[in-house]
Amino acid sequence: MASVHVDPRVVQYVPPHIEPQEVYYGSYELMKPPIKLRIATGGAGQSGLIRALSDAFIDDQVSETGCEKFAVAWLKSDTAGSFNYLAQASADLSITYHPAAEDIAMQQGFTDRSVYAWRDHFMLVDLTSGVGPTSNPANLTTSADTTIQKLFSQIFRAAAVKPDAIRFLSRYDKSATNIKEASIWTTIGQVPWAYPYSEFYHRYTSFPFQALEVAAKLGEYTLVDRGTWYGVPAWVRQEMKIYMEGHDSDPNPILLNPAHVLVGTYGANKGTANAFADWMIRDEGGQKVIASFAIGGEVLYTKAPLADDVISDLRVGNGD
C-alpha cells in the first residue's frame, strides 16, 4: 500500500525523478539504449537478481519481438518505498513481498496487475564462533519441533536476564523483513519497539546487505532473507550460524517471503511492464532465470508455485 496520495492523471503532473541505482542493457551495453522500464525493489537488486532478470528480458524481447533495443533501470527501495514509487508513477513496476499490502495497493488503484515472481525465505542468524562479541548469548537450541516463535521467545527471556549481552537487530524500515519480524514478535505477545523501549531491540534502519553486516560485526541476532544471506560477501557469513530457515516444503511456511511483480497503473512504460510480467511467469523466461540464479554455487531463490499452490502461499506469506 502507498503512504502518499497523488493523481498521475492530472495533465500537469510530472512524476518525481528517482535516480537509478543501476541501469542494465542486456547485450547492448556499448550502445546505451534508452531506459524503457523502471523497476522498484530492494534486496533482489543488491543480490544481482534484478540485473540477471533484466539482461535476459532485454535480450529476449529484442530477439523475439524485434522491438527497439532498450535499457532497464533499478530504483533501489524497500517494500514501502516501492509502493510509493508506483503511486507516484516514478516506477513502471515494483517487486514487493507482502500480499495483504499488495491487495490494498490494488484497491488504491495505482497498480492493476500482480503476478507471483519467485519464492524467497527468511532465516534467523547470529554469530557462532568466539570471534568478536559473545556468540549465541541466548543459548538457542533447535530440534525437530522448534518453531521460530519459540526461538524469539528464548531471545526475549534471555534478554530479560542478560540485557547487556543480548541484542536483536531490526531493520525498522517498513521493509518486508521488518514487517515479518514484527509479526513474529507480536505472536508471542511482545512489541519491543513500543514505549518503554526494550534495550535489547536494536533499531537499525538500512538496506538488507548493510544491516546484515552490522549484525555480524556486533554479534546480534537478526532475521534475514535467503537472497541477502548468500548475496553478501563471504566474510559476513563465515562467523555466523543459521538457527532456523524457511523452505518451500514447510507445512506452515511462516518464513516464506513471496515476491510479486506489480504493474503500475500510470507508469510511462506500461506496455513494457506488462511484457515483463508476462515473461516473468514463463518457464523459459523469468522462471528459468530464477531457477539458475546462484552465487558461489548456491541457488538463492525458488520458482513461483504452480497455480494450485498460489492460494496457500498467499494465506501465509504476509511478510525484502
Shape from CA axes? globular
Q: What is the overall pLDDT average?
A: 91
Number of helices: 12
Q: Largest sheet, if any?
A: 11 strands, mixed
Radius of gyration from CA coordinates: 20 Å
Number of strands: 13
How are helices and strands ordered from N to C?
A: EEHHEHEHEHEHEHEHHEEHHEEEH
Strand residue content? 15-25%
**Uncertain ranges:** 314-319
Class computed from helices, strands and strand pairing: alpha/beta
Description:
This protein has 320 residues and is of the alpha/beta class. 36% of the residues lie in helices and 22% in strands. It has 12 helices and 13 strands. The strands form 2 sheets. Strands 1, 2, 3, 4, 5, 6, 7, 8, 9, 10 and 13 form an 11-stranded mixed β-sheet that branches. Strands 11-12 form a two-stranded antiparallel sheet. The longest helix has 17 residues. It is globular and about 65 Å long. The two termini are 15 Å apart. 44% of the residues are buried.
Helix and strand topology:
Layout: E1 22-24, E2 35-41, H1 43-46, H2 49-65, E3 71-76, H3 79-87, E4 93-96, H4 99-108, E5 111-127, H5 148-161, E6 168-170, H6 176-187, E7 201-203, H7 208-218, E8 221-225, H8 226-231, H9 234-237, E9 240-245, E10 256-264, H10 270-280, H11 286-292, E11 294-295, E12 298-299, E13 302-303, H12 307-316
Parallel strand pairs: 2-3, 2-4, 6-7, 6-8
Antiparallel strand pairs: 1-3, 4-10, 5-8, 5-9, 5-10, 5-13, 11-12
Summarize this, please?
This protein is α/β, with parallel strands linked by helices and 320 residues long. It has helices spanning 43-46, 49-65, 79-87, 99-108, 148-161, 176-187, 208-218, 226-231, 234-237, 270-280, 286-292, 307-316; strands at residues 22-24, 35-41, 71-76, 93-96, 111-127, 168-170, 201-203, 221-225, 240-245, 256-264, 294-295, 298-299, 302-303.
